[in-house]
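4.2 Preliminary Data

To establish feasibility before requesting continued support, the project team ran the inverse folding procedure on a target of 238 residues. The structure was first converted into the token representation described in Section 3, and no sequence information of any kind was made available to the design step. The complete token record follows.
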């Protein structure tokens, strides 16, 4: 789904510009630009529009093409693509080195302040770097892992959440433990990434699986690995 229609759907659902920015990775100035004609036409979140009880994606597409004719072209409709284009050479270099698209996107966000969602980034790669995108989809078979020998652990970002008390916006993370042989999965949403949360989630995962693998293999997150090293990593004592 295109970014512009996604923006309108979030706004129509009553989300603030700050929430839309955090969710879609779009700059607030860009959000205001594309919301301006909707506001000028008298639209407001949740109101009926031209007798429509529900605003479908096709309805937003029709309105957007009238407000911004230039974005009717499928390639131009992606409002965050121009912010990705300057990083083309770096993206190609990392894809050729085997780095995943999600990792590349994360690096661009952290190191270059990229304001585009990972979904928009993936669409840009598929549209502008089709050969590199196909190469990145190649999966190298891994050797078989004996049952009970290993579990892998990591965190993944789920999104933002507004706490019911106080209204504070917090990031929700997923603690994930997966059995390497069966790929059986344990996921626990958490709001902290400290040592206590890590230890509690690990214990709950092992209770869920009903046993302890011979090895627990964490990614290089601080609560699991204090100092990464190929030959002598320092593992957190807990």
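Position-by-position output of the design step:
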């Amino acid at each position: 789904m295109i970014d512009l229609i996604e923006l309108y759907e979030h706004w129509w659902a009553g989300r603030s510009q700050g929430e839309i920015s955090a969710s879609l990775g779009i700059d607030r100035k860009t959000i205001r630009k594309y919301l301006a004609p909707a506001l000028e036409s008298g639209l407001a979140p949740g109101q009926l529009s031209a007798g429509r009880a529900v605003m479908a994606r096709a309805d937003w597409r029709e309105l957007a093409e009238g407000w911004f004719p230039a974005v009717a072209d499928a390639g131009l409709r992606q409002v965050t693509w121009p912010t990705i284009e300057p990083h083309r050479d770096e993206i190609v270099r990392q894809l050729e080195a085997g780095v995943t698209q999600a990792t590349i996107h994360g690096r661009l966000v952290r190191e270059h302040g990229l304001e585009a969602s990972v979904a928009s980034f993936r669409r840009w790669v598929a549209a502008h770097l089709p050969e590199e995108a196909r190469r990145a989809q190649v999966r190298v078979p891994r050797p078989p892992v004996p049952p009970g020998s290993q579990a892998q652990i990591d965190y993944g970002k789920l999104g933002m959440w507004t706490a019911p008390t106080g209204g504070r916006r917090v990031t929700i993370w997923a603690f994930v433990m997966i059995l390497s042989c069966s790929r059986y999965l344990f996921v626990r949403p958490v709001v902290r990434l400290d040592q206590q949360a890590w230890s509690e989630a690990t214990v709950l995962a092992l209770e869920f699986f009903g046993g302890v693998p011979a090895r627990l293999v964490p990614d290089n997150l601080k609560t699991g690995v204090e100092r990464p090293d190929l030959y002598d990593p320092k593992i957190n004592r807990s």
